[in-house]
Structures are given as C-alpha cells and as structure tokens.
Amino acid sequence: MDKDRQQTHESPLASAPWPRSGARITHVRTFLCGPQGCPYLIVRVETDQPGLYGLGCASDPQRTLAVRSVLDDYLGPLLVGRDAGDIEDVHRLLLNSGYWRGGSIANNALGAVDVALWDIKGKVAGLPLHALLGGRARHGAAAYTHVDGDDPARIAEDVLAAAEAGYRHVRVQVAVPGVQNYGTASTGTAWDPLAYLRHVPPALAEVRRRVGDGVELLHDAHERLTPAQAVRLVAALADARLFFLEDALAPEDGAHFPRLAGPVPLAVGELFDDVTQFLPLLTARAIDFVRLRIPTLGGLTPARKLTAACELFGARIAPHGPGDVSPVAQAANVALDVSTPAFGVQEAARFRDATLEVFPGAPVPVGGVLYPSEAPGLGVDFDEAAARRHPAPPPLAHDRWALVRGVDGAAERP
Prior knowledge:
By secondary structure, the protein is an alpha/beta fold. The protein has twelve helices and 15 strands.
C-alpha cells in the first residue's frame, strides 16, 4: 500500500546558490488506497524537522502505477536534501529534470509534490493555505452536485431537492434510450451522437421549465462531439439557460471554440495538462470557465498563475473535483477558490464514510458550500492505518468506463 524507499544519497538538485533557509526534505513516500472505490495515490513529503510533513495528491485513475513510478524512482530521489520552502525553484527544477517534460503522468507526480510543499509552507507559517494565497476573497466556495436520470420530471424533482439542501448549482446528465451516454445509468452499448442531439436539449429545456430560474443548471457533453455537432448542440440549448456547458469539444478541437459563441457559457479544461493550452482560448475570449485540475496541471504553483490569467481575461475557474480527486486535492481546490476574484463554481464529490475516515479534515459541502480549513496548511491529514483497510482496485479496472464505441463500431472518446 505504501512505499518508503530510503533516499539517502545526495540529490543532483540539492545544491542551490543561496543559503539554506528552512526544513530539508528527507523522504518522499507514496501510498495507494481506494476508500472511494477508485485509486488514490497520496504523496507524503517528509522533512528533517520532527513532525513536519506535507501531503499531495497524484491520483490518475487510469495510469496510477506509472505516476507512482515517476515519484518513487525519479522525483522522490531528486528531492532529498532540497529546502522544502523553495517551491518555485523546486517546481522548475523537477519540471525540467526530464528533457521530454510535461504530460499528464509526469505532471500528476509533480503536482502532488508541489501541493505537499505548499502544505509544508502553511504549517511552517502557522497559516491556512488560503492565507498564503492572499487571504479570503469570499467566505466559501459554491459547490455543484450531480443529478442524472431518464425522465425530465424526475430529474427536476432531484434538482429541486438538491436546491432545498442548499445547492445553487446542479449538473444534469440525461440518459438517452438505447445509447451509451456519459454520466448516466446508460441503457445502450454504443454512443450515438444523433440520438443525443435529438434527445438531450429538449429534456434539459423541460427540466429548466420545471425548476424555474432559482437554480443554475450545468451539463457535460464530455468531448464526444465533432465541431459541427457541438455547434448544433449549443444552438439547441438556449432554452435550458445553462450556467455552463462543459467539454462541448475535445482539447484537440479547441481551435473551434470561437465557432460556438452564443447564448451558452462554455467550460473546458479538466483534460489539459499544460496551463499554456488555455492561453489561446482565454485571449480569444472563447471560453467562460476554466475546468482546471490541480494535480494534472503540475500543482498549485502553475494553477494559481492560470487563475490570475483568468481574472485578467474575464474568465472564471471551475476546478475539477469528482470522486477521483482525493480530499487532499479538493482542499487545495477550495483554498484557491476562496482566494481569487476569478472563482466561478467548484465541483463537489460525495465522499464515502471510508474516505472521510482515511482523510481527517476532508472538505465536505455544508448547505451547498465548501469552506476552507483554518488549520495550518491544507487542513487535511492522512490516516495510514485506515488506508490499509481500503486497498486500491487493480490496474485497468478504471480503464473500462472509457472504452466507448460508436454505432458503427469505431472507438470514441470517453
């Protein structure tokens, strides 16, 4: 479940041209567990100061062991001896330590280390993470929850129940009869975009008619449409008055986003593994919400810079936070959310009781709002003994959900 390799040699990155000013990194340990049902890869960066350590999340449900190898075999040994307080320097050195840098696997590993160093920074300062990012810009982060179904009337009832519980934002996914559709209890075995385009827009419009305008509705197309199909979808969704439409296009088709300009706000980004991928979309004012995923972007260090760019270009952040984002990463999300004027909404998972046991201090919505911890650092801990009671699923277990075929048998995006 956990790996603890004695990393006692002098790291090639250990020497810096300035005096040591803080705690030195002594170990980087990785833990694999599955209290939520998906694999969580947790990183613990330990220092030479008794009891001082930081936690990070490197979770990639499909390539978990590859990310772990990057941490155990490469980044961990490189970190030994480094000053834990030099976050910018460490981030740049680790980013450049692989000549072919970047990519989701390397960045998830780097992102975990980066968040762990921010956790340490907060603990040393005796301040919660949001205080290090400039302090509060709001009392809490509005969260959105998820509702799905095949009947607009029943969906509307569930949306209103979520609103009654305090959620002002609800993502709605609609099952399409006979179609393998994302985010629902699908009744089919294949993806059919024409059936989706016929069925989903009027269903969402009916949900809107039934719930009124007192709650924001969101919908995720999950990158399965061609640019031409996405144009049709956006035009058909006007009556649903969405807060945003997520992933109308895949990252590879990002240049087509200006074609979608219209009445529906657009969100994209959970698949991006480089903050520069957002820049053409921001400068063109082609998107409204950035769906950043802190681990996959390489950590809080690049994510906070992207957030500043969103503020400058009039976009807002909507960080990725489903069940495969651990409470450690969710705590980093919330700290970022409450410290920026560019915040839009935060995706919120329903953490299982087992997950809450493994991660004391995990962020949990209260009345549809996620509040940051006031404890130093992230405010989330990791119970190793509890984690051992919840082993991670085997490799490839979480690849199955992404193996989608179209009606003609061709492989489709997940």
